[in-house]
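Case study.
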Amino acid sequence: MAEIVLAVAASHAPGLAGLYEGAPERTKADVDQMYGALEAEISAAELDALILIGNDHLANSKVLEYPDFLVGMAKEHTGPFEWFKPWLNCRDYSLPGRPDVAEALLAGMAKRGIKFFGRRQNLRFDDNLSIPTVLCNLDTHGVPVVPILQNCTVPPIPDQRDCYAVGQALGDLIENDLPDGMRVGLFGSGGLSHEPGGKRYFFIDQDFDDWFLGLLEHGDHEKLLNEVTPERMERSGEGGTAELFAWFVVLGAIGGRSCRRLGYTAYDNFKCGVGAVRWEMSD
Amino acid sequence: MGLEAFNPNLVCHELIQDLKWDADLRAEFENDPASVLDRYPLAPDERSAIDAGDFRALYDMGLHPYLGGQFARLMYGNAAGPAATRAVNRLVASLTGEERNDDRTTT
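After joint prediction, the assembly is written out as follows.
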């Protein structure tokens, strides 16, 4: 029986690396504090595998054949993908993969009636994996990663209840299908409010972000599932805020756990509300 | 302006994703966009909108906004700083119908 020993979630945005130097000092301090806390949590967890769930951003599959969940099965994950480098302005990185865990995810989800797709080649990673990697130093810590890139933007989109159900299946799979003693971490990567490519490109809805983080801290999953709907997310940023579906996968996998806000910052040039949380897994 | 008009069949999606993924094609597009556009079976109004940089029209035809933002960068500059700022300004101006002179250095 494997165990989920770590569950965290945090925003990604290219500007967190690419525009960091030009950000206000207070913003930089907030970013350092949040991602530094995440790094410490991840490092201390001594993970055998970190399953990172994040928006694919239409980076790996054509619109006409778009999977809802795509698992990175490579032995090594490298990034960022060439075209995104000018946005991110971060170091190149290499992370160890866990092809065995990736295969277990595909087989175990199929057994549970959920279609995951997989790719053995290196995926094209943008800020979804690159920001957590370089801000939490996943590469220097040698954390083995299994990325699950999900469809947050191409209709029909798996909604909060679909993603929560996928998370429940994932939690069951980790507990029952992965090897005894394996220490697994979950990282929901994406959000908070933002509207990439829309009229409100620089819009951040701080009220929404605070409300959502508060709901997580309150811990009532049914309330989250009832109120954080696609329509509500779209009002706070079309085509971007829905990245929070990754956080619902984590919620489904871990069930009712207390949640702590690690920080939040809203700097308009990041074009994204930036926040981070951790769930208490030793309750 | 969200996904309500989204049309997965729009050929422009394939063009944008190919440009993102293929550096050689991207270089060709930067030097001679017409030669690249001619190879895609774009509808006449789709091609006209691309030639005019009319993102509003492309969105109304069903262009996915996320790829619209990236198309602006492919057309007007991808590098963080002035190029990306120009791309964002052109995109937002087209979508809103209002000139935009935001001079923030963006990415």
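Observations recorded in class. Chain A has one domain: 3-279. Chain A touches chain B at residues 14-15, 18-19, 22, 57-59, 62-64, 82-83, 86-89, 124, 153-155, 196-199, 201-202, 234, 238-239, 268-269, 271 (CB under 8 Å). We will return to this complex in the next lecture.
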